[in-house]
Design brief:
With 137 residues, the chain is of the alpha+beta class. The chain has 3 helices and 8 strands, in the order ααββββαββββ. A hairpin with a 2-residue loop joins strand 7 and strand 8. The protein is globular.
Length: 137
């Protein structure tokens, strides 16, 4: 019984560790991504928030209090490594898997459940990975 409790505790700790992801509420994102740098209300009613934690900047867009888009930058404006990109995609997998769908001009990623997509490229002149939910229209 004691071993089962330790295993359960380990699972809970790893599943709630320092990563926020698409669909999370603003409280969890605030706790996960550290120092709030900037918050602005967009014309469409969404809220865009920029966070700084360790060597990353996180730009998160919230609609109705939930994260619908997250963009990851290196604070030194350098490219993210493949390992970093994989880690950010994995944090936003929600039990699904990511598949590269590259074109000649950009790196794109598709989530196997069809509920999110990702793109690596320039955002405001800086290399960044953006993941966003795909709305069901």
């Amino acid at each position: 019984m004691k071993e089962f409790s330790l295993i359960l505790l380990a699972i809970l700790v790893t599943s709630t560790s320092g990563w926020a992801n698409l669909g999370d509420g603003s409280d969890k994102v605030d706790d996960s991504y550290g120092n709030l740098v900037q918050r602005r209300l967009r014309d469409d009613g969404a809220v865009s928030v920029l966070y700084h934690k360790d060597r990353y900047l996180y730009q998160v867009t919230f609609v109705n209090g939930q994260s619908v888009s997250e963009t990851y930058f290196n604070v030194k404006d350098t490219d993210l490594t493949d390992k970093e990109i994989t880690r950010f995609l994995k944090a936003n997998a929600a039990g699904a898997t990511w598949t590269p769908v590259n074109t000649a001009k950009e790196r794109r990623f598709k989530r196997s459940d069809g509920k999110a997509e990702g793109m690596y490229g320039k955002v405001n002149g800086r290399p960044a990975l953006t993941v966003r939910t795909i709305s069901n229209r």
